[in-house]
Structure to design on (117 residues):
């Protein structure tokens, strides 16, 4: 499916999340912007919460705009996300990831050909 094909908002969010490469993170707001849904960061969270596990989306690479994980620090979900991020070489300290170090900056090719509009 090319980016020229019309997709639903949920499909655009899920596709954008699937493009975040191993070892990189993106914020909910960044995903919303890239999916053509500016200002809809909470909607990205909604989409991720409601994605079937069978889709195997790299949800763990999505964090808040300040680099914090969206889950309470001692929760099972935070532990799972930290474990998955560590496995990709991403350091999590105090329930936070350094966006300047690990943030995803898609290149022009991705913006033109892979990111859905």
């Amino acid at each position: 499916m090319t980016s020229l094909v019309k997709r639903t908002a949920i499909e655009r969010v899920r596709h954008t999340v699937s493009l975040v490469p191993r070892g990189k993170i993106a914020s909910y707001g960044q995903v919303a912007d890239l999916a053509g849904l500016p200002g809809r960061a909470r909607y990205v969270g909604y989409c991720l919460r409601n994605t079937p596990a069978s889709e195997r989306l790299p949800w763990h690479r999505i964090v808040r705009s300040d680099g914090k994980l969206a889950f309470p620090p001692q929760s099972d979900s935070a532990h799972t996300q930290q474990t998955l991020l560590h496995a990709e070489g991403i350091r999590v300290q105090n329930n936070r990831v350094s966006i300047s170090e690990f943030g995803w900056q898609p290149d022009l090719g991705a913006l033109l050909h892979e990111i859905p509009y």
